[in-house]
Amino acid sequence: DLQICQHRAPTCCTKKMEESYQAAVRRERTQSIQALNFELKYMIVGHITAFQEAFESLLRFAENRTSSLFETAYRPMAKEAAEPVKELFTDISLYILGAETTVESAVLRFFDSLFPLVYSRLINPGITDLSEDYTECLRLTRQDINPFGRYSKNMVTELSKSLWASRMLSQALSLGIEVINTTEHAALTKECSKALVKMQYCPHCQGLTLIRPCVGYCLNVMRGCLASVSELDAQWREYISTLEYLTNEMAASHDLEIALTGIRNSINEAILHAQLNGPQLSATVDKVCGQPKQQEGNLSSDNIVPVKEATETQAFVMAQVSLNHKRREFINYMKRSRTFYASIAERLCDGDLVMRDSSTCWNGEDVV
After folding, report:
1. Cα–Cα distance for residue pair 33/46, rounded to 1 Å
2. How much is the pTM?
3. Using N-to-C axis directions, what is the helix angle for 103-118 and 75-96, rounded to 10°?
4. Of 243, 317, 301, nearest to 57 (Cα)?
5. CB-CB contact of 230 with 59 (8 Å)
6. What angle do CA 10, 12, 14 make, to 5 degrees?
7. d(CA 106, CA 95)
């Protein structure tokens, strides 16, 4: 009653043993593909973590650098500006990690929050009554009167270019893991599991427990079993090319590090622009939002302080070097994995599974 290991000679197998063998080859096939995938997956997961740590380190540095701008140059509004600055960098971090947001909305939301502070603490420092309604009016007016000139738009453009490649790379790495996980759990067809049993376990039914499959026979069986997986070859090569493109984009002119550290200067230029145009802004705001209450004896708004440039700290340099090194190391490794799905059958037929150095092997029917 054997279905797979039928043979002319007497056999020590039963139908139940054949079923056990089928379960064994399914398990072994999954384990062997997992073992092949392990190094590739380990490399990608390791780099996802390394990239994210480097991103976070750069973001923290840029955030601290931006906060120090308010503490050194715009002290009257430093405390209140802390929250908008924190929100801006949180939004940037979420964008890089793939959240449904845009760089433009993050930057413009920041400038919406900044304008009421600049207006009431720097342009008209005598304002005492900054009610919620008045603050909201200032926020909405910012979009119409454009107090920060071209600087807010420039900041959107610069950040969008550099953050786009980082966001795409982050998503591409996650996609790579997804592809690898899917191939590990691709179901075996009945024909495939029977062919694997015939190749690996039918010799046992003849008492030939030490004989192993012939190389050519193993390759034929594995290629048949893995046809659907090896079809990924063209897409995988395309995927590696895309990773290469993205890492080059990140390292090219739209450099993430330069864009993040440039946020401080962009904000400073934007605030200076608003202060220089203070009288015109005040006239427009008075028409739209009304006149707020003033303290007796208006405080001088002539408090534009030259910005003390923060020195490049060692932590930032280390994060920058680390990110560049990780990019190069990662893409070189991934380029070596270009043929991963094309050569998966060859890899599975390597090592202990087949008989390489002996003159006798199993060809599916007999020892040859």
Report:
1. 20
2. 0.74
3. 170
4. 317
5. no
6. 110
7. 9
57 token code pair: 């380190």
What dihedral angle (degrees, nearest 10) is formed by the CA atoms of 308, 311, 315, 318? 140
Distance between CA atoms of residues 255 and 166, nearest Å: 10
Tell me, rounded to whole angstroms, the distance of Cα 300 from its chain centroid: 48
- Asked if 259 contacts 158 with a C-beta cutoff of 8 angstroms, the reply is yes
| pLDDT digit string, tens, across residues 158-183 | 899 888 888 888 888 888 888 888 88
Q: Helices (DSSP H) in 101-232: which residue ranges? A: 103-118, 132-145, 151-184, 190-200, 202-205, 215-225, 227-230
- For 126, which DSSP code? T
For residue 9, give both structure tokens: 């000679």
Task: Give the single-character DSSP code of 122.
Answer: I
Q: At residue 310, what is the residue type?
A: A
**Residue 268, H or E segment:** helix 256-276
Question: Which element (helix H / strand E) includes 329?
Answer: helix 314-336
Q: Helix, strand or coil for residue 362?
A: strand
C-alpha–C-alpha distance, residues 329 and 351, integer Å: 28
Of the candidates 266, 295, 326, 235, the one whose C-alpha atom is nearest the C-alpha of residue 48 is: 326
pLDDT digits (tens, 9 = 90+) for 43-76: 888 888 888 888 888 899 999 999 999 999 999 8
The answer to whether 11 touches 5, Cβ cutoff 8 Å, is: yes
Give the SS3 label for residue 367. strand
